[in-house]
Amino acid sequence: MPIIAPSMLAADFANIQRDTELINNSLADWFHIDIMDGVFVPNISFGFPVTEAIKKHAKKPLDVHLMIVRPENYIDQFAKLGAAYISVHWEACPHIHRTLGQIKEAGCKAGVVLNPGTPVHMLEEIISDCDLVLLMSVNPGFGGQKFIPSTIEKVRKLKQMITEAKSDTIIEIDGGVNYETGKALVEAGADALVAGSYVFSNADPLKTIEGLKNL
């Protein structure tokens, strides 16, 4: 069964406690927290206060995805807020090995994110240092985008790299995930699926999460 991480970017911010409790009571495994700065991506999302509010009620791990420039400046604060996983973009980190070490020193699991146009072979030298690799299956910045089909083959390549390195790195996918794409991703080797609007815009979010969990 895949790890399911509903994206709180698609939650109702006016009812954040209600939606957090909904995820607590579902078969989901993690809370996916998207942090955007309007610089690295063309959108601005929530920051420390909303993350803290979610953590206050969350009974499952926080999976924090930093879509920001200079993420190394904010790692310690997100760790203090209770992040279990912190993922940074390869494209935003000129010293990615150092940043991964910083995340681990802060007491969190360390992840690297690749945009759709970044090939997985860029991670060959650091794959054993990654607890998680998050592949973007849409261009980051906005929810509800259409899934990029070439992600399936990208997952296969990444899985092969992880196997050859004898690593236990988790492969996570974010963007356009639904039952159809989720099934293909899991078959290709994905371990974790992020779903935002597909969960929260559904009439029965609990049933939607259950369906993804049982792929």
Automatic annotation (TrEMBL):
A GO-annotated cellular component: cytoplasm
Domain of life assignment: Bacteria
GO molecular function: D-ribulose-phosphate 3-epimerase activity; metal ion binding
Its biological purpose: Catalyzes the reversible epimerization of D-ribulose 5-phosphate to D-xylulose 5-phosphate.
Catalytic center residues: 34, 174
Catalyzed chemical reaction(s): D-ribulose 5-phosphate = D-xylulose 5-phosphate
Family, similarity comment: Belongs to the ribulose-phosphate 3-epimerase family.
Name the record gives this protein: Ribulose-phosphate 3-epimerase
Required cofactor(s): a divalent metal cation; Zn(2+); Mn(2+); Co(2+)
Pathway: Carbohydrate degradation
PANTHER family in the cross-refs: RIBULOSE-5-PHOSPHATE-3-EPIMERASE
Binding positions for a divalent metal cation per the UniProt entry: 32, 34, 65, 174
Keywords recorded for this protein, A-Z: Carbohydrate metabolism, Cobalt, Isomerase, Manganese, Metal-binding, Zinc
Taxonomy of the source species: Bacteria, Pseudomonadati, Bacteroidota, Cytophagia, Cytophagales
Cofactor binding description: Binds 1 divalent metal cation per subunit.
EC top class, as a word: isomerase
GO biological process, one term: pentose-phosphate shunt
Binding site for substrate: 7, 65, 141-144, 174-176, 196-197
EC number: 5.1.3.1
